[in-house]
Design a protein that fits this description.
This protein is α+β, with helices and mostly antiparallel strands. Helix content is 27%, strand content 29%. The longest helix is centred in the N-terminal third of the chain and has 18 residues. The two termini are 15 Å apart. This is DUF3085 domain-containing protein. InterPro entries: DUF3085 (IPR021436).
Length: 132
C-alpha cells in the first residue's frame, strides 16, 4: 500500500485545477493514446523512480507540476524504495489517472482522517481512508 497525507492530496488536486484554469485544461496521462480519458480534475499515480502523485493541469512553459511522494516509496528518504515499488507497484514504470470525484466526497465526509491509502493489484486499484 502507498499512503499520502490527505492535505497533500487535496493540494495536488487543487494545483491541477488551478493549472488547468490558467493554461487551457488538463493533460492526458496516457500521452494521447486514450484521447479525452483522464482530462478532468484528479491526479496521476506514477510509479517511476519511487511512487508519487502528480497534478494534472496543463502547464505553462517552464512550469513544473506539484509532486508528492508516497510515505513508503521516496527515493531520497527510503533505502529500500526500489524493492517496495517492485513488490507493490511492479518493476515497470506506470501511470494511472485517479478521478477527484472518486475521493473528494469521501474526504469531505470523513472527519479525522489523515492519509489516503492506495493499494494496487493486478487488475484493481483500491482506496482506504486512514487515521494516524
Amino acid at each position: 500500500m502507498f499512503t499520502f497525507p490527505i492535505l497533500a492530496v487535496r493540494k495536488v488536486i487543487a494545483r491541477g485545477e488551478e493549472d488547468a484554469a490558467a493554461n487551457g485544461g488538463f493533460r492526458n496521462p496516457y500521452y494521447g493514446t486514450r484521447p479525452g480519458e483522464g482530462e478532468k480534475p484528479g491526479f496521476w499515480l506514477v510509479g517511476d523512480e519511487g511512487v508519487y502523485i502528480i497534478s494534472n493541469g496543463k502547464l505553462a512553459e517552464g512550469q513544473k507540476p506539484l509532486v508528492v511522494y508516497s510515505t513508503e516509496c521516496y527515493p531520497k528518504g527510503d533505502t529500500d524504495w526500489w524493492d517496495y515499488k517492485r513488490r507493490h507497484f511492479g518493476g515497470d514504470d506506470g501511470i494511472e489517472f485517479i478521478d477527484a470525484d472518486l475521493l473528494v466526497p469521501s474526504f469531505n465526509r470523513s472527519f479525522g482522517i489523515t492519509h489516503l491509502g492506495i493499494q494496487l493489484s493486478e487488475n484493481d486499484i483500491s482506496f482506504s481512508l486512514i487515521t494516524r
